[in-house]
Amino acid sequence: MRSVTSMAGSRGHGQGERSEPACFDGVEASQGHPRWRLRKNAIGITVTRHPVYKIKGIRHSPFQGITKPGLCNVLGVIKFDGGESHHCVYNEAVCSRLAQTLHAPIADGVLTMTIGGPAFVSLRLDSLGENLPDLLWKKRGSAARRYPDDVASLMLFDLLVGNWDRERNLKVSLANANMHLFRAFDHSHALLDVFFDDMRRSLSALHDGELIVRRHPFYGLIPPQALSAALNRFLSVEEGMIRACCLFGTGFAGVSHKIQLAVADTLLKRRGLLEKIIWDNEGVINTLSADP
Amino acid sequence: MSFSFFTIQYVHDAFRREGINIAVLASIDGRGYARAPDLPVCSKLHGFDAFSNGTAEFRALTGLNYSECAAYPDLLDYLANVGVEYGSNDERLAAEMRSLAESACALVPVTQGVGLLERAEKAEDAVERVFRQFVGPIPKRRLDQFPDLVARVLQHAEIAYNDDLHVDACIDLIAGPENLTVSLYFDYAIIADWMFEGGRGRGLASGKNRRPNAGLRVVGGRMPVAKRRERLDAALATFEQAIRLDFMAAEHLALLTDAHGVENASSRCRRLGVRCIDAAESDARHLIHRVMTA
After folding, report:
1. pLDDT at B128
2. Which of A109-118, B149-158, B208-217, B271-280 has the lowest mean pLDDT?
3. Among B75, B163, B245, beta carbon nearest to A8
4. Beta strand pairing status for B253-257 and B275-278?
5. What is the least distance, in Å, from the CA of A67 to any CA of chain B?
6. What is the DSSP letter of A252?
7. Using the beta-carbon criterion (under 8 Å), do A24 and B180 form an inter-chain contact?
8. What is the DSSP string of chain B?
């Protein structure tokens, strides 16, 4: 096997002689590019744009498998029905599924069963070991400038599910040039609990295209193009997928199958009315909400 | 004159709930103040940039490493904004502290106290006094060892979280019909539009592969002289091969090293046309950014 050095030497390559693409034994690299492959690449510090969640501990792998799976504990915030939100678990579960379907920037969550019944666990956001404070109201302009697409998607999502209580329920990284983190949480006042203790009225308001969200941190701050792109994306999702987000196959967390079907129909109707809702309430949506 | 203040703890592990005092927010005579590691007593926000303050004092105080403190600039930004803006009103500051306590965050308000401004004492000095009382002096530790320097330079050069950044990249350059292989090793490489090998065999799958955009070798830190020389030689050999085989341009290659490395390798790098960058220099991040994102 010839050494590369001698090969290169035989071609007369040296400093300053780089006008020709690399040739190897008279065979030119295809299309002017040398052939190469990345053999090894350690999983390093590259971070994707999806948020990370805090792992409490990783146990030794008890399972067989090529990926060496193991057990671990992940930190989360557990939520139950009750208080101001009688259907909190159902609301949060549906909003979580919907957000994934519509690509809205909501913190991930999972359902679990406890002695007290079903519960929803919102996974605790963890930006490399630290949990940020909720976004300051005065920083919402900075958030909108840095994350225009996320902001548009979130506002539209809140309009869709009737989440009037967004306020500061957001974790956003603004000070770190290298970090992309924008995640919203808490939807206990959406869907069936838009109006406290009045499920029928909540569904009715959603179905009829009422604005519901009278104030929002990002009103008056969303570029029209971002809003338009988000709306197109929401409208392009298949009906069956939105319906599937609302149905659990049977009664769940105190919400009967019949009510789940009603939620699905309501959301599909409201999705179709989103553009009209925005248009009819332009004055509110295009004006900065007052400080809390 | 009396003034009110809050001390803030940093809780790294929510399960263990062990916190360490790190900041003081005070309201003195209708004006808000914030003091935290890497944030001298601050009473105005004009021109404030948490990111550029760094995390050296925070790391010294908490014992965390550089990557564990990546979100500290956001926490610092919050503390400065709340301390200065909300601190001008006692009730508003108290309400925000209640909200912070409920937000399940790494910052936890722990103490609400009342301090006394001594005669002829400035407000900033009073805040500093309270900070020293509750947080204590920032320990001296051997900060900015070479790995810390490298991590900081890459962060500040805004390539640390670049989606195209590959760490420990070993590139096999395949040559000729005999498929001779030249291995080029980079500690960090920017490779955009890289396609996985496979399907249609080795090498180019569809002609869309582009050569790596930039490559960086890192040699530095405490090590024997012979080992340092060996690693520098290996790095320069890599550069030489990449340039000689016309695989990468010299301006897209760099050696990130320390003062000893610069002393030993700068002339050879200059001959190759490759950058030799001292990680401790103030303009290191600009130079790295230029090389890696050209």
Report:
1. 92
2. B208-217
3. B245
4. parallel
5. 19
6. B
7. yes
8. -EEEEEEEEEES-TTTT-EEEEEEEEEETTEEEEEETTEEEE---TT--HHHH-SHHHHHHH---TGGGTTHHHHHHHHHHHHHHGGGSHHHHHHHHHHHHHS--SEEEEEEEEEEPPTT--HHHHHHHHHHHHT-PPPP-----HHHHHHHHHHHTT-TT-TTEEEEEEEEEEETTTTEEEEEEEEEEE--S-----SS-SS-SSS-----SEEEEEE-SS--HHHHHHHHHHHHHHHHHHHHTTSS-GGGEEEEE-HHHHHHHHHHHHHHT-EEEETTSTTHHHHHHHHHH-
Q: Tell whether B1 is within 8 A of chain A (Cβ).
A: no
B244 contacts on A by Cβ (under 8 Å): 8, 13-14
Written as six digits, the tokens of A162 are: 């009737």
CB contacts of B81 in chain A (<8 Å) are 136, 138-139
CB pairs under 8 A between A and B: 198
B183 in A contact zone (CB under 8 Å): yes
Interface contact B169-A176, CB threshold 8 A:
no
Among the residue ranges A4-8, A13-17, A210-214, B28-32, the one predicted with the least confidence is A4-8
Task: Mutate one of A128, A138, A178, A185 to test the B interface: name it (highest B CB count within 10 A).
Answer: A178
pLDDT per position as a tens digit, A160-194: 999 999 988 898 988 876 677 888 988 988 999 99
For residue A276 the two structure tokens come to: 């009209």
Using the CB atoms, write b or e for A123-150: b if 16+ within 10 Å. Answer: bbbbbbbbbbbbbbeebbebbbeebbbb
Judge contact between B161 and A48, C-beta under 8 A.
no
DSSP track, A94-127: HHHHHHHHHT--B--EEEEEETTEEEEEEEPB-B
pLDDT tens-digit map of B216-273: 999 998 888 888 999 999 999 999 988 888 888 899 999 999 888 888 899 999 999 9
Global pTM value:
0.68
The ipTM (two decimal places) reads 0.71
Write the residue in A46, A136, A180 that is nearest to B81 by C-beta.
A136
User: In B, which residues are within 8 Å of A131 by CB distance?
Assistant: 14, 104-106
Q: Which amino acid is at A249?
A: G
Strands B165-175 and B180-190 turn out to be antiparallel
Contacts with A, B 237-256, CB within 8 Å: 241, 243-247
Interface of B with A in 5-34 (CB under 8 A): 12, 14-15
B105 and A31 within 8 Å at the Cβ level: the answer is no
Contact assignment for B194 to A38 by CB distance below 8 Å? yes
Determine the 3-state secondary structure of A61 from DSSP: coil
- What tokens does A151 get? 């902001």
Residues of B in contact with A8 (CB under 8 A): 241, 244-245
Strongest mean pLDDT among A109-113, A131-135, B169-173, B273-277: B273-277
Put simply, the answer to whether B71 touches A45 (Cβ < 8 Å) is no
